[in-house]
Design brief:
It is built from five helices and five strands, in the order βαβααβαββα. By secondary structure, the protein is α/β, with parallel strands linked by helices. It starts with a strand and ends with a helix. The structure holds cytidine-5'-triphosphate (CTP). The site of cytidine-5'-triphosphate has 16 residues, from helix 1, strand 4 and helix 5.
């Protein structure tokens, strides 16, 4: 059984999120997703996500490619989560390219190309102008 793990906020779910989850799932048997908590987002970006963490967890859990979800409480705990969920592959979008290479003795790190022209930030900006 090959476990894949990935992390993200997944706020205002869009097709870029769907694409990375679908492609991550093809790399193994079980896909486990760490959804970053509201407080982690606040610490990182000085704003809360539009969708609350429980809703973001429920949405990601409802995606057919996802087998398990958990709340990512701290960016510093990636190695602990990888061990806890027995992940052998860590998938990140290529906006993080190189940033997680230090975890490579523990896990295979794969950076997948982001879907062009869509992000939560851009969706929010478009909505603001409507
Ligand atoms: N992602 C992707 N393609 C996109 C947007 C996101 O592959 N167009 C991936 C990211 O690389 C990450 C995961 O989806 O692995 C969750 O990304 P997240 O940061 O939650 O989404 P963004 O749309 O990038 O959010 P923001 O605009 O707030 O940075």
């Amino acid at each position: 059984m090959k476990n894949i793990i990935t992390f993200g906020t997944f706020d205002v779910f869009h097709v870029g999120h769907l694409n990375i989850l679908r492609r991550a799932k093809t790399l193994g048997d079980r896909l486990i997703v760490g959804v970053s908590s509201d407080s982690l987002n606040y610490r990182k970006k000085y704003r809360y996500p539009i969708y609350a963490e429980q809703d973001r967890l429920d949405i990601i859990k409802g995606i057919r490619y996802v087998d398990e979800v958990f709340l990512e409480e701290s960016l510093e705990l990636k190695a602990d989560y990888i061990k806890k969920y027995s992940a052998s592959v860590l998938v990140m979008g290529d906006d993080w390219k190189g940033k997680f290479d230090d975890l490579s003795p523990l896990v295979e790190v794969v950076y997948l190309e982001r879907t062009p022209s869509v992000s939560t930030t851009s969706v929010i900006e478009v909505i603001k102008t409507v």
